[in-house]
């Protein structure tokens, strides 16, 4: 019975993640989640009393994945140049997207329960800032978070270009990658020989 319940929760969360990635948080309904999962609406409500509870479960899942990936990135960051770190961050976005596909929708959610959005953004910023500080040990926490916010927004734009949700041309994603490399090189270089 427990294994069946865990399997049903997995199916419901996968359906919710797909729908939120396709339609956004606000446009996704509980009925659509149940339908996509091939479940009865009562089954969905048995595990999740409302859409916010579904979003909360997805955020927790995404945060766990991000924390694991950012911890691995922080270990590698000491050996990376700023340009290589920029490439690794972009590659991380591409490889993580299938596992955290609804994260962007949850981070952009306009809901009264802003803690959902703030928690997702906060963990992404913290993970990127930690990698930046390992790569450039003299970088202070405030500036690291500011740079992380720019990088996170650049990653969001690149995701939009790749999925064709943002205006783009065939060469634009490569130009954005180059811009990200130049930006991180410029911002991190002065702090690479300090500390640590």
From TrEMBL:
Residues crossing the lipid bilayer are none
What keywords sit in the KW lines?
Answer: DNA-binding, Transcription, Transcription regulation
Any idea where the HTH tetR-type domain is? 6-66
For molecular function, the Gene Ontology terms on record are: DNA-binding transcription factor activity; transcription cis-regulatory region binding
Q: Which residues bind DNA?
A: 29-48
Q: Which Gene3D superfamilies match?
A: Tetracycline Repressor, domain 2
Against InterPro entries, the record matches this protein to: Homeodomain-like_sf (IPR009057), HTH-type_TetR-like_transc_reg (IPR050109), HTH_TetR (IPR001647)
Which PANTHER family does its entry note? HTH-TYPE TRANSCRIPTIONAL REGULATOR BETI (PTHR30055:SF234), HTH-TYPE TRANSCRIPTIONAL REGULATOR RUTR (PTHR30055)
Put simply, this protein is called: TetR family transcriptional regulator
Organism classification, top ranks? Bacteria, Pseudomonadati, Pseudomonadota, Alphaproteobacteria, Acetobacterales
């Amino acid at each position: 019975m427990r294994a069946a319940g865990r399997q049903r929760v997995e199916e419901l969360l996968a359906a919710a993640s797909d729908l939120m990635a396709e339609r956004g948080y606000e446009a996704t309904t509980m009925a659509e989640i149940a339908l996509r999962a091939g479940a009865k609406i009562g089954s969905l409500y048995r595990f999740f009393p409302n859409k916010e509870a579904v979003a909360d479960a997805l955020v927790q899942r995404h945060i766990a994945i991000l924390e694991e990936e950012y911890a691995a990135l922080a270990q590698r960051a000491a050996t990376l140049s700023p340009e290589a770190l920029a490439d690794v961050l972009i590659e991380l976005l591409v490889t993580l997207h299938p596992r955290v596909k609804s994260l962007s929708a949850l981070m952009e959610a306009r809901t009264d329960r802003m803690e959902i959005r703030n928690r997702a953004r906060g963990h992404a910023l913290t993970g990127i800032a930690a990698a930046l500080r390992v790569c450039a040990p003299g970088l202070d926490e405030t500036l690291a978070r500011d740079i992380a916010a720019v990088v996170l927004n650049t990653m969001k734009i690149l995701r939009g270009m790749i999925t064709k949700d943002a205006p783009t041309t065939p060469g634009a994603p490569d130009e954005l990658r180059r811009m990200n490399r130049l930006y991180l090189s410029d911002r991190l270089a002065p702090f690479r020989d300090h500390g640590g």
